[in-house]
Amino acid sequence: MQRRTFLGGVAVAGLAAPWLQAWSAVDMASAPVGLPLLASDLLPAGATLRELPKLANASSTPGHFQATLTAAPLTLPFIPGHASTEFWAYNDGLPGPLIELFEGDMVEITFINNLKQPSTIHWHGLPIPPDQDGNPHDPVPPGGRHTYRFNLPQGSAGTYWYHPHPHQYTAEQAFRGLAGPLLVRSREDPLAELPERLLVVSDLKLDRYAAIAPNDANDWMNGREGQFALVNAQHQPVLPFDAGGRERWRVWNACSARYLQLALPGSTLTLVGTDGGLLEAPQPVQREYLLAPAQRIELIVDAGSLRDRIELNANIYPRGKMGDVSPDKAMSLLTVDFTAVRATAVAALPGRLGSVADLGPVTAHKQVVFSEKMNMANGSHRMQFLINDQEYDMGRVDLVSKVNEVELWEIVNRSDMDHPFHLHGTQFQVVERELGGVITPAPFRAWQDTVNLRSNEIVRIKTVQRWSGLRMFHCHILEHEATGMMGQLKVV
Fold it and tell me: Which residues form the signal peptide (predicted)?
């Protein structure tokens, strides 16, 4: 029997995070699939894209950033004619407020947890010590608070974000709204004069009553995708393009599992930065760019001869979903209005943007293998997501590294679907990819903390950890992380 055919006829349990406590796999026999959802045309669209509010700095000392983030329920009249929708939000905003920092800053952010679940704040991608990174071992209880303190090293300018990372609760807290953008800026940014757009793409799944729907069977198996994709918490907004004909876009994929095959027909797109900062030189984008869950990019968008309204789309990307799922459809994320553009030409981009120096000789090797397995013990069908044939265990150390030792990690995807690999506490460099026995070197060096792997693909990365302590590595499809696809790295 073919595995995919078999999966199409069974159901994975629709477990929401609070009920995962005793589960190391997903029970496939008892949860519904495809609960009735709100019609996608009921969410208003077409408003002007709003700018993201910033988290205010309470400190008057230069180089010191001090603020408070509070996680709490937030009720909004989101759908006209329906009951209000309860989200969970940082500082009563969706997404959470923009945190804007500079290299060299000393940061102190107090987290207040007004949820009924334990939570943390994980500073996704930031090079900071493990004990300040909101790992699952450091939960803040309901009603509690914790102050995160860290320095931002020189060379850390990039596009980051923050979100919860409590064991067994991450997926639910994220899909209810807890995530926000974070920028680390350089005072010597070669693109600082360009108009900048910040686009945080998130996913929203509402039931027929406009309440946030719990995960169903397919969500736990494939990763959660709702019927709406939002930009800055708006449905298909309109972005008025700058009259000068060129903008710098920073784009976050803050979705639990949705892949964004980005396309803006007729425009010229140039990749200038990835998760951890600027590339060494601009790289042209051919038609589309794939942004996997948790990844971020910086793009230069040139209007060229466009003077009308063009949709920024998330085109179909076949990532290998399993089970009885509806066919994927292209989605419009927003409309770019080029009608105000007056420029007839733009200057050439700088030939050199930043420095992405090779990490140096490799002195250690590691292998991480993603896999999935059907478990039919005791008459119950269970789907297991594994790393190195094991489910996540908070009490187990899976790998050991040494501080400042350059390592080559071989990430292997032996599963039937794509998985985005994320390593905490550092940025890495992709060296090469291997698929079907064909090795393809990375076309350029870049700083990344998340990389996608296709089914049966191998990705090799160079990385180094700068602090001792415990780090996580996992699939950033949050439902897969929750159901076992995470490991622990001890740095000594």
Answer: 1-24
What are 285-344's pLDDT values in tens digits? Answer: 988 999 999 999 999 999 999 999 999 999 999 999 998 888 999 999 999 999 999 988
pLDDT band at 377 (very low <50, low <70, confident <90, very high): low
Give pTM, 2 decimals.
0.93
Beta bridge partners of 413: 370
State how far the Cα of 422 lies from the Cα of 475, in Å rounded to an integer.
6
What pLDDT does residue 345 have? Answer: 85
pLDDT number for residue 383: 80
Q: Give the type of residue at 292.
A: A
CATH numbers and ranges of domains, the chain:
64-185 (2.60.40.420), 356-491 (2.60.40.420)
* pLDDT reported for residue 152: 98
